[in-house]
Automatic annotation (TrEMBL):
Superkingdom, natural source: Bacteria
Protein name: CoA-binding domain-containing protein
Matching SUPFAM superfamilies: NAD(P)-binding Rossmann-fold domains
Domain CoA-binding: 13-106
SMART domains with a match to the protein in the record: CoA_binding
Pfam families per the UniProt record, alphabetical: CoA_binding_2
Amino acid sequence: MSRLTTDEQIKSLLKESKRIAIVGLSNKPDRDSYKVAEYLNNQGYEVIPVNPTIDEVLGKKAVGSLKEIEGQVDIVDVFRRPDQVMPIAEEAVQIGAKAIWFQLEVVNEEAANFASEKGLKVVMDKCIKIEHKRLFKSE
């Protein structure tokens, strides 16, 4: 599919998406992943925590991997080190996710190219919360 780089592309993705799996979501309120999940939850998205080391976060049961999620996943939001994201991109493809979003400073060209070649929309090195707030602030 493609890399989403323009405001219009990113806004369209956020508008058409309902379920966001957050890989690496922490249950610690001071962590960025928690703040992002809380924000997305408050915006009406269904947030699915993906972290094998926690049971739940924000009242939602966590799953150990993307493969454990039932139903369609619109966006896989990745909070992991760049050297750890290739297996996540592969799993996102396997479960038929529509898009993969690599958070700020999560830059892995190989994983992004792989996901894009397999038909996923890709956003890299951007925060989904910052982008959502910026693109939807007037709505």
